[in-house]
Amino acid sequence: MLTLDRFLPYRLSVASNAVSTRISLSYRKRFGLKIPEWRLIAILAEHESLTPQEIGQAGELDKITVSRAAAVLIERGLVAQRRNPGDGRSHFLSLTSDGRALYLEIAPAALAMEAKLLAGFSSEERKALESLLRRIEQAALTSAPEV
Amino acid sequence: MLTLDRFLPYRLSVASNAVSTRISLSYRKRFGLKIPEWRLIAILAEHESLTPQEIGQAGELDKITVSRAAAVLIERGLVAQRRNPGDGRSHFLSLTSDGRALYLEIAPAALAMEAKLLAGFSSEERKALESLLRRIEQAALTSAPEV
DNA sequence: GATATATAGTTTCAATTGCAACTATATGAT
DNA sequence: ATCATATAGTTGCAATTGAAACTATATATC
């Protein structure tokens, strides 16, 4: 028998929405960033210099989203663009020093929010949650697109 | 140090998106339903007759979403509306026999999709995932709206 | 090296979503 | 009973999102 309350896709969606809403409010209020913009900054902070395509792969963002987020961040002077000598259709993106400075502000705030969410969890529980989420994601991507 | 790939809100969002995308495609293709419409049907299947407000509480849907989903389902003859004698601003919604018939088709399909997603999980893992998700959700709702 | 096909990224347009204003009814105060 | 305030649900409008078309460049074929 089906019970919505115990249906995995429902529980996952509700949990994810609660967390996203909570977090995105913070990003927006404190730093004027939407989630894709924040993701792009986080990825560039880890990778130095990437093409939009590589950013999309690294952060599960589609190319439209990357394009728009990058435009906003370039406009704000947080991200710089330079030619890709190997491929004229593409280009490299990287954080400017302002971008890096902003990242150094956000990263601790993000970690603090995460810590708050996970406050009641043991370290085994955290690991378990991460691993279960990865497996569910894998299963969703793997199973045939049509049931 | 922050790593996007290991950041809980990110993992949660990615997993939830993967599952939602996968599932909503199915609902839409096979039954012409969007997720809120499906949720509304599932809730009414469990509760017989509810006001829009009660539906919203039962399924984490805001009142606008309920209103629009209900309008679509009434138009399709899947949901019926009748006066609420106790409060003229409100009304009761319930499944029509067509609505119940559709539910009896969808419910097994939904359970089958869930089973597929959870195929590699032991029953302890399933319970753990459900409980961890509820706790995260609670933590997100509880923690102050501003960090 | 010209033409055809493929790919990276952007832009346009249509669908979806959510806030804020609105309508109708209910509740509380004088 | 009248007026003020609160609540249920709907609608209008603005912002967000995503799919498809478009532009520019690259690669493959003849």
Explain what you see.
Two copies of one chain form a homodimer. Chain A is built from six helices and two strands. Helices cover 67% and strands 7% of the residues of chain A. The longest helix of chain A is centred in the N-terminal third of the chain and has 24 residues. Chain A is globular, with a radius of gyration of 18 Å. The first copy, chain A, is mainly alpha-helical and 147 residues long. A two-stranded antiparallel sheet of chain A has the order 1-2. Chains A and B meet through helix 1, helix 2, helix 5 and helix 6 of A and helix 1, helix 2, helix 5 and helix 6 of B. The structure holds a DNA duplex (30 and 30 nucleotides).
Considering residues with a beta carbon less than 8 A from a beta carbon on another chain, report the largest interface and each chain's count: A-B, 64 and 64 residues
Number of helices, where a helix is a run of at least 4 consecutive DSSP H or I residues of chain A: 6
Instruction: List the quaternary state of the chains.
Output: homodimer
Q: Which whole number gives the mean pLDDT of chain A?
A: 92
Strand arrangement within the widest β-sheet of chain A reads 1-2
Regions with little confidence, pLDDT below 50 for 5+ residues of chain A: none
Beta-strand content estimate of chain A: 5-15%
Summarize the helix and strand pattern of chain A as letters.
HHHHEEHH
The helix-and-strand class of chain A reads: mainly alpha
Strand elements of chain A, count: 2
Report the helical percentage of chain A: 55-70%
* Major β-sheet profile of chain A: 2 strands, antiparallel
Anisotropy-based shape of chain A = globular
* Gyration radius of chain A, rounded: 18 Å
CA distance, first residue to last residue of chain A: 19 Å
